[in-house]
Amino acid sequence: MFYKFNSFLVFGGSLLAAVAAGAYILWGPSKKRPKDKCRGLVNVGNSCFLNSLLQSWAACPSLYSWLRCSLVSTPASRDKLLTSTIFKVLKVLNNEEEDASDPYNPSSVFHALRAKRWIISSEEQDMHELFHVLTQTLEEETSRYPSVLSLFDICHLQDPQNVYQSDMQARTRSQVLLPVLPTKIVEQPTRGLLASQLQCLSCGSRSPVKYDVFDSLTLTFPRNYWGPLSLDSLLHQFVTPEIVQSVDCEGCAKIAKHEVVKSNFRKRVSMGKLPQVLCIHLPRTQWLDNGAPVKRFDHVSFPETLHMDQYLYCNQGKEHEERNGLLGGVDITLQMLSQSAKPVTTPTSAPVNLLRTLNFDQHFTGTGLFVHPQRAPQIPRELSDVNHNAPPELIKTGSADFSYKLAAVVCHIGDIQLGHFVAYRRGIHSANETLKGAGDLGVKWWFTSDSSVTRVTQQQVLASEAYMLFYEKI
User: Are 316 and 367 in contact (CB under 8 A)?
Assistant: First the structure.
């Protein structure tokens, strides 16, 4: 009897232990995720192009903070559906949402885009095209420009929450106050300006500087060269002047006393204003002479720290430094000053530029705008048409350091017909951190391929076949 009772106790104890072990396995504490490891993203069907872009954006503190500031200034609503959706996904990727699953399903981004009337098929898509779709839609949501009023808005004119301009600021025929126009609190961090200018090769006259908005720089590969390249060489190629033929020249028309005179122009393109987050696109599709597309597998070496000073429109350097060909006045190579009685000296020109009084901003253009330096002689001040009305404190100071730190790299694995996008990104950061002060977390690199996230070295990142580069200003 005792033996049977003892066997029952042993059997009962074993059964209870098995039940406890099973309960621990099913409902026990799970393995904690490392704080510096980012989460993966579910591939909802050829969505690797979206996942790699979101992982790259999550590694850019300025973009992350801009989204948060945009939502803080105006509460999230249907008008900011995409802004709030992307911000939530970036919070998940930076481990600021504890209850989020791993990997996380980013299908809400597609739902937000469809709500904005974007049609995205389930087939493979280009990540760079999606990049412009997102930046354009985010710009529309965060611009806060006033909508066009109609008769149905009359009831809102007496809303006590409306803010109007004072009598001294706005006067109308009906003596009715005008509402205060909304303004942007923070500029979109990926937005910059390209400065372009045309100069006649015959008479030396130049057109006004034209500014074009850009969200990413597209640097094409040389058609006649297949082999290793560098990011610096592609940037130099981007700002290299090109010849534009058969352009109407008003200067030549005045000299020849004709209505229309065709001439060849030299076109220069440079950085008019650099963004906080510099996005560089390296298109790897090239069309052959027979019309067949091929993918370029050339390795492009890129640095961890990128210096962009030399690609700005004009160098506001010290006296007697090298200057580019965009000098104020007529280009000396055109020999247009041969009729002048005063000789032209050969030292460098004074550190002034045409844009300072037109685009003066301590935060963005405090150093002026300049392009790749080339040696050029000085034109005497009295013979130059440069605007010398720049603030004197800017002339005396040296150029600031427009330096960028690498935040993420997107690569395309495959060929023209079939491929997969992956991303290398820096470690987790908070919304208040920058790459300059992220500490040890900013040094770690992670390889993300949809739901798969693995640790990699910086050497592996720099050796990757880049398709898009994301640099954060430091």
Answer: yes
Question: Which DSSP helix (H) or strand (E) runs through 265?
Answer: strand 262-273
Between 139 and 352, whose confidence is greater? 139
420 is catalytic: yes
| More confidently predicted of 408 and 148 | 408
What confidence category does residue 441 fall into, taking pLDDT thresholds of 50, 70 and 90? very low
> Bridge-partner residues for 409, per DSSP?
424, 469
Active-site choice (132, 388, 420, 429):
420
Catalytic residue among 38, 48, 249, 411: 48
Task: Kindly state the average pLDDT of the residues 16-20.
Answer: 61
Dihedral angle at the C-alpha atoms of 142, 67, 56, 418, nearest 10 degrees? -40
Closest to 233 measured CA to CA, from 325, 166, 299, 287: 299
> Of 468, 474, 5, 473, which Cα lies nearest the Cα of 217?
468
Say whether the peptide bond before residue 103 is cis (omega within 30 degrees of 0). yes
What is the model's pLDDT at position 213?
94
Does the active-site annotation cover 38? no
Strand 229-230 to strand 293-295: parallel, antiparallel, or no bridges (unpaired)?
A: unpaired
CB neighbour list of residue 61: distance below 8 Å, 6 or more residues apart: 429, 431, 433, 434, 435, 438, 472
Please check whether residue 371 is in contact with residue 382, taking contact to mean a CB–CB distance below 8 angstroms.
no
Highest mean pLDDT (candidates 98-112, 228-242, 345-359): 228-242
Looking at the DSSP assignment, which residues form a beta bridge with residue 95?
none
Answer yes or no: are the C-beta atoms of 141 and 80 closer than 8 Å: yes
Give pTM, 2 decimals. Answer: 0.71
Outline where 48-196 has alpha helix (H): 48-58, 61-73, 81-93, 107-115, 127-143
pLDDT the model gives residue 96 = 87
Length, in residues, of the chain: 474
Domain ranges in the chain are 48-140+416-460, 192-274+309-396
